[in-house]
Specification:
The protein contains seven helices and eight strands. With about 200 residues, the chain is α/β, with parallel strands linked by helices. It has an eight-stranded parallel beta barrel. Helix 1 packs parallel to helix 2 (about 45-55). The chain is globular, with a radius of gyration of 16 Å. It comes from Blastococcus aurantiacus.
Length: about 200
Amino acid sequence: MSLPRLLVLTDRTQCAGPLVQAVATAVDCGARAVVLREKDLPEDARRELGDQLRAVLDPVGGLLIHGGLAGGSGSEAVHLSGSDPFPAVRPRLVGRSCHSADELARAGEEGCDLVTISPVFATSSKPGYGPALGLDGLARLLPGAPRAFALGGIRPEDVPGCLGAGAYGVAVMGAVMRDPRTMRGYVSALRDLPAGEATYPT
């Protein structure tokens, strides 16, 4: 399964308007992979929201990843929290949120296809997981990890540093949820790397 270098994580509480519209704008600006979180929603409502997001992503060949096991039942792609058990029936793509070396080791042993590592920088979107790793801390965690996406306070200007530390890509939530047009900055940052290192699109 193709995996872009840029993940967008949803959080409707940070959107100025409807979540589907925010994601549609982000897709128009270059987003090609979205992790549907919204774990507080009833299963039926979350499934309906997933169908709406897939309708936005399918025309551009985008990827919808369901956050957690419940919302991802029958999905080809899921992203697990640190405490979620590994699915009994393996989807085609499995990711896991990680915050420590032990969690990364577990994800590797499970055969996860990707991980998010956070928080790289201070962020109000994911409190309670500090202190921030910084680029040096990120680099120390990455050797041997599955394809890793740096998450937490990532700005477009941070993209080269995160990839230079060894991350496969970057994941963003708050900035894009608050203003989906900022997606253009992340896409440009991935395209504007030195010749031979540009990583967008993949």
